[in-house]
Write a structure and sequence with these properties.
Helix content of chain A: 55-70%
CATH class of the largest domain in chain A: Mainly Alpha
CATH architecture of the largest domain in chain A: Orthogonal Bundle
Number of helices of chain A: 9
Structural class of chain A: mainly alpha
Shape of chain A: elongated
Oligomer: homodimer
Largest interface: A-B, 65 and 66 residues
Low-confidence stretches of chain A: 195-207
CATH superfamily of the largest domain in chain A: Tetracycline Repressor, domain 2
Distance between the termini of chain A: 66 Å
Order of helices and strands of chain A: HHHHHHHHH
Mean pLDDT of chain A: 89
Number of domains of chain A: 2
DNA sequence: TCCGATACGTTGCGACTGCAACGCAAAAGG
DNA sequence: CCTTTTGCGTTGCAGTCGCAACGTATCGGA
């Protein structure tokens, strides 16, 4: 072989450029040439590593998933045995609270729209969320007989909540702090550790 | 004047075609020519009614908003004085439970992505959700001292929840029934009318 | 009856798209 | 040394895009 280049590394580099373009200018502006320009290479090289555009798009999606996974793995909060803390650590990774996650969030929204027409993209998205839903539901059950909601419903709700909060934050409809507070509140509900009601409620029950 | 055509009606007709294209083939396929073809007219006519593409896009967004509004106005559930029922009627309109709302949902997702690059689209989206958030929060407060969550947080959460559920249903990650059940469960929580916990909990409290 | 405004349709332009094809340089193996 | 494989750049092509310009037909008012 000649130059001997790490194929996967190159692809990741290009996928990075793609994600930047997608986040900053929208998925409609993701073209071979734009990605190449963003990466500082020629369009020909992009074609060399991805034979088709769709191949590149899907690979970029995998890169995001891997990145979230990686961030989760070296999160101190995500290790331990407090289910509530574990689930919180997982879900907060999906909220665009810093620059990195904002970029990923924009990409995620764009891909959700993209998935409407690309079944294989939809499938990959689906498998990711299904995995997380199962994880969350399991943790809630592990916390034992707690919240007022069925664990499956609570898990589905939390995941959808985070998705919606992310959309609202990205759209400027919601401050990041408010999103975090809303997530915390619903985590409390899901795990049954309800903080004191805002106004005098019926009977304050606590563990 | 010649032919004397209802300008607004024509624009609505074209916007309808746009929405169909957006829902079925994605926003990236929305072009003057495609919209024209879908509407069964020439591209020139589309240009006659919308001087620019962006003008058309924003008008189409208004059409969706008006349609939701209209559907809400002749919904028997949306009239009455039970706050919980009112909010439920409002939020369920945003869930893709039938063909019409599925189309609108796809459009909404596409536009959320689109808004990332178009500030005026983002502003219009923002104003719509802000109005609904205020309405929901008001209704929750009107229900009085009920759920474990602050009314503002509960309203924000419900709106985000519905948004997320819609995305998951559209992506095929979630069955429509499950989405509805999840919404119902969280409405119960928000309004403090908690249905019986799934497994033996502490103390079954009911009104 | 002429005028002009409105309602379209047609054409064309420059820019851009994804992609195939080809070309050349470099390096490992014979 | 020479062939072959791999990395990467260039060019070209058919198609699409938004949009401006122009053409025409139709009607109401003067």
């Amino acid at each position: 072989m000649p130059k001997q280049v790490d194929h996967h590394e190159r692809r990741t580099l290009l996928a990075d450029a793609l994600l930047r373009v997608a986040a900053n200018r929208g998925l409609m502006d993701v073209s071979l040439r734009h990605v190449a320009a963003e990466a500082g290479v020629t369009a020909g090289m992009v074609q060399h590593y991805f034979r088709t555009k769709d191949e590149m798009m899907i690979f970029a999606l995998d890169v995001v998933a891997a990145r979230v996974q990686a961030r989760l793995e070296d999160d101190p909060d995500a290790t331990g045995d407090d289910p509530r803390r574990l689930v919180g650590a997982l879900l907060v990774q999906l909220l665009p609270l810093d620059a990195d996650r904002e970029l990923e969030g924009r990409v995620a929204v764009a891909y959700h729209a993209y998935a409407a027409t690309r079944p294989d993209v939809a499938a990959r998205l689906r498998q990711d969320t299904e995995g997380m839903r199962a994880a969350v539901a399991g943790r809630i059950r592990a916390a034992g007989h707690a919240g007022p909601l069925d664990p499956e419903i609570a898990a589905t709700g939390l995941l959808a909540l985070v998705e919606g909060l992310a959309v609202h934050v990205l759209g400027g409809h919601l401050a990041p702090d408010a999103a975090r507070a809303t997530l915390d509140g619903h985590l409390d509900v899901a795990f049954g550790s309800v903080s004191t009601p805002p106004r005098a409620a019926r009977s304050g029950s606590r563990a």
